[in-house]
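Pipeline run #58 for the internal structure catalog. This entry was flagged by the ingest filter as a single-chain record with no existing model, so it goes straight to prediction. Upstream metadata was stripped on purpose; only the residue string is passed forward. Reviewer on rotation: M.T. Logging verbosity set to normal.
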Amino acid sequence: MFSRLSSFAVVLLAAGAAVAAPLIINTPVDVVSGQPVLITWSGGAAPFTVKVNEFGPPPVVVATFGPLDSTSVVWNVDVPAGTVVDFSVQDKHNALAQSGSTTVQ
């Protein structure tokens, strides 16, 4: 009986360890037109695809990066000051995370 419970507990622990952390993308600060900005995220499972979206109806994708195995990418900001953007990341399991919006300076 004890060995069955022990085996069951080991299986549950292994299954829990295999679950990836939730996918989260950070909202960059100091996004300046003509300057590079670091986009970072955590969780999920590689490869990742990152999109920079111009906020508005309809939203417009202004940059796409991927597939990426890392958890960061540099975007050379190529939209004019005053543009409102947000960032999204999607992992290999199609989990999607979206940042808050920020205004390009």
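catalog note: The CA atoms of residues 20 and 102 lie 28 Å apart.
catalog note: Helices lie at 2-18.
status: ready for reviewer M.T.
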